[in-house]
## 1
Amino acid sequence: MGTGNFAMLEKLKDWKKTHVFKTEMPANARAIWSVIGLMIVADAIGLKVQGMSLVLHALIANVAAISIIMGISFIYSCVRRSPRIAEMTHMMAILLAYTCSGAIASYIAATVHRPLFDAQLAAADRALGLNWIACYRWVAAHPHIEALFLTAYASLIPQLLFVIMMLNFKGFCARGWEVIWLFVVSCTGCLILSAIWPAAGAFGYYHIEANRPYVQVFLGLHNGAIKIIGNQPIQGIIQFPSFHVALAILLTYAARGFPILFITFLEINILLFLSTPAIGGHHFADLWGGVALALASIWLVRKVVSPRLGLDMTKVMEM
């Protein structure tokens, strides 16, 4: 080997020493990826047991996106070192990976042949003097309110992404991981409860807008007519408990300590809460289920997850 090649190798070694850093995945990230791995295994078993199949090409875009985001996280962890960006992109990859595996799990959960729970949910509404049909008709008769409710109902994903970015750029990466855990715990709980108490929702139960895609998909899964996942866009089909309400509460909770953001999220999510019956087609009882799920998730993450994984919510990461 010539002296020129030796010189090039020495330069490469010097560059690696000054630009490439060793990094180790924190315990909480390893734990979340383990949960995702278990979810993927459970999905595979569920598909086999229920005699269903998954159109793999439907996942290509998501797998590619996760790979790209993880690549960005690696670059900012090991090459162009920026811990806050590295953590933020890592969290985004986890959100996407868990959402994909959880969406498949929600379809499998809907195939569990348990009696629909809608009659009991509607009876609970009536016991509290709540009339879903009257509420739906009132909102439909007020287009401006309906438009406001639609906007609030569609705001969850932007809220989630914004709070993750804001916490990381402020240096509260442990708080960002708390949000990720709250999302994972609440979504997992929602999946389990939806399998135990399946519901078509108020649209399906009252036969109002029953042709909505998510209602038709849920009913097709529940009665066994749908056996293939991925040949049509994946729908959010869980009705009880309301994940919209649970996540709205969790995101408002995540904004604590930032007065302007907290008040903004609180106002938006009060509107979201009010919009959920008419816009989301949820029974009122679904909302109370979402509240209980959120509170249980906060308790579990604060009392079990955070202490065991050493998440210090007050720590600010250095640049």
Note: Residues 20-309 form one domain.
## 2
Amino acid sequence: MKALEIIAEQQGGTPPSRENAGPDVASAQSPAVPAETPAADDRYSRQRLFPGIGDAGQQRLRASHVALVGCGATGAASSGLLARAGVGTLIIIDRDFVEPSNLQRQMLFTEEDAREALPKAEAARRRLAAINAEVTVHAHIADLVPANIHTLLQGADLVLDATDNFETRYLLNDYAVETGTPWIYAAAIGSYAATMNIIPGPSEYQTACLACIFPEPPGGTVETCDTAGILNTAVNLAAALQSTEAIKLLTGQPQAMRRTLFSTDLWTGEHSEVNAGKPRASCAVCGRREFRHLRGEGRPHITMCGRNSVQIHEHNRPVDFAELADRLRPLGDVRWNSMMLRFAYNNYTLTVFADGRTVVQGTAEVPRARALYARFIGS
């Protein structure tokens, strides 16, 4: 079972915004939701015919407010599905911009978006407005961090995970438990896809949280989409499962939601499920309510290092240089010895030291450096 690897879905990231950017830094909103029309009735007619939704469920969807953290492969697919389903308000948060390598799996984006290097959040907002003008979309070009998470996610009934690193997922988990906001984890890498519903208490439908299943993230370097590859079918399966579970919750049917961590390999047909129906009594997060990720504890210390470099001081992260070199060699020039590894990619150079400390050369933007680190080293 590859649940630990799958959690580390990596969609890449090169953010054009500062780390603590709030909604005032780069926020856009689509037109206000117009009154429902006969044309709108026809738009959702097949969905209304489905017994699990009906007219009442469609109205609930229209009144719903969903935040998506990340708008790479999974986020693009899930936001498109929810916009077409008629979810009334979407918040899109992403620190990345569109690149040609995204187009194989990130369904909202076009070659023109890649040529213009549009921020993914804004490109998604434009595309979603063209798909369904009734949906209000707030686009935030930002890196979700403890300093801005409460502001950016304010008002969301549900949060969908489409991020690319452990750090943000554990931050989301802390936020969800602290505020009582449901969230749905989803990830894909290679031919694997995985999802898990997290419903915080107090509620008769309370589930385990992420920290109940994985008290700590895996150590060392991990596979990413950039190093292990990914099938667009795996992405779309993860998004379909995530969006369906979201629709169950938003239409007032939490009892119908799956209560397992589900993972499957589309290539081999293997799948597994881990029971996540009950919280772990000794869980530090939902049991003892210790929100160390919200407090920023354990996050890499980041400093400027020279004129055009950012240094990321990872905590207790041993590095296997030989294994990392093998993963990175197909992507760029790699040189290493017993003390350090240097990886050159396009206009950037990442120098990784034995203790996990990494210097990212070629940018002075902290979010961009963090995203490059997540893409190639794994976070």
Note: The chain has two domains: 3-275, 301-376.
## 3
Amino acid sequence: MVDRNAQALADQLLALPSTDRARLAELLLASLEDRDPGAAAAWDHEIDRRAAELAGGRVSGVAAADVFAEVERRLRR
């Protein structure tokens, strides 16, 4: 159960415009990632690996619209 003060804060934050909520989400996530100093380097490595796979033709991309359609389909189950 969420503390009433936390719930009141959440209600206020959810009323903010989406751009402000997105920025707050980024800040909150960044505050969690700081606990693992190797996380940023690991993500950089993963991004480089995936980009090389795409550039080398070892994998192909999937259109975002197809990905979102598949997510919607799975959520409706």
Note: The chain has two domains: 1-35, 37-77.
